[in-house]
Write a structure and sequence with these properties.
Layout: H1 9-23, E1 29-35, H2 42-62, H3 64-75, H4 84-105, H5 109-114, H6 118-136, E2 146-152, E3 157-162, H7 164-167, H8 176-186, H9 191-209, E4 225-226
Parallel strand pairs: 1-2, 1-4
Antiparallel strand pairs: 2-3
Helix pairs in contact: 1-9, 2-3, 2-4, 8-9
Length: 227
């Protein structure tokens, strides 16, 4: 399945320029990542399919005559008596069809993500952002001044994670202003401006708590990573 394209090349350049400007007065390093999604949620899809299969079996148990008559009409299977083996086969077929149908329906991505509970989305996005932070920003700078701004589009979730030298000086609530600025643009469908707004809010925080040191070099790339 092709990955959705959320930003143009010009958008990438604008975000890179915003990161460079935000880092100009600070030794902090900002990493920006925009993800199409943070997980495939196969386990959630399987859980929904299993639930639908269970409900189909429940319906068969409640109204067995209806299902047996339906089978007879569909397959014109006249003149037989329903044995235990046939009943078990009907139950197995009903459950299998319900399971397969629900899995097929969830191939349509809007429905798949609609069925994912909010807390699960939040948890998976946080886990993915944390992995990305550990790979791309945490302890990747000499002063441990990396910060990650992570945006996951299909889940409608964002994360801001800071390395040790920043996290120990800044209360988590400080990042709320950056999150608010980002969400305001996301609601308008402007993904590039959302990331730029977050970067612009993070810059002064970094300049205050980790001001630029003499001889400071750019240790992490300014370009946005789109995955």
């Amino acid at each position: 399945m092709a990955k959705a394209k959320y930003l143009s090349e010009a958008d990438h350049q604008r975000i890179s320029a915003a990161v460079a400007e935000a880092e100009r007065l600070s030794s902090g390093e900002i990493v920006t990542i925009l993800a199409d999604r943070s997980d495939g949620y196969t386990d959630v899809a399987l859980a929904w399919a299993a639930l639908v299969a269970f409900l189909a079996l429940g319906a068969l148990a409640i109204a067995p005559d209806f299902h047996m008559d339906l089978y007879d009409r569909l397959f014109a299977d006249w003149g037989h008596e329903w044995s235990a083996r046939m009943m078990f086969s009907l139950a197995l077929g009903t459950a299998a069809l319900a399971f397969a149908a629900m899995m097929m329906l969830q191939l349509w991505q809007p429905l798949r993500f609609l069925l994912i509970p909010g807390p699960i989305r939040t948890m998976r996005v946080h886990e993915r952002a944390l992995r990305a932070f550990r790979i791309g920003a945490e302890r990747r700078t000499s002063g441990r001044t990396g910060i990650l701004i992570y945006l996951s589009m299909r889940e409608h979730r964002a994360e801001i994670l800071a390395d040790e030298a920043i996290a120990t000086k800044v209360e988590p609530g400080v990042w709320a202003e950056a999150m608010t600025a980002m969400l305001a643009h996301l609601r308008q469908g402007d993904n590039a401006e959302a990331m730029i707004a977050a970067v612009a809010k993070v810059g002064p925080v970094l300049a205050t708590h980790v001001p630029r040191m003499e001889g400071d070099v750019n240790e992490l790339p300014d370009r946005l990573i789109e995955v």
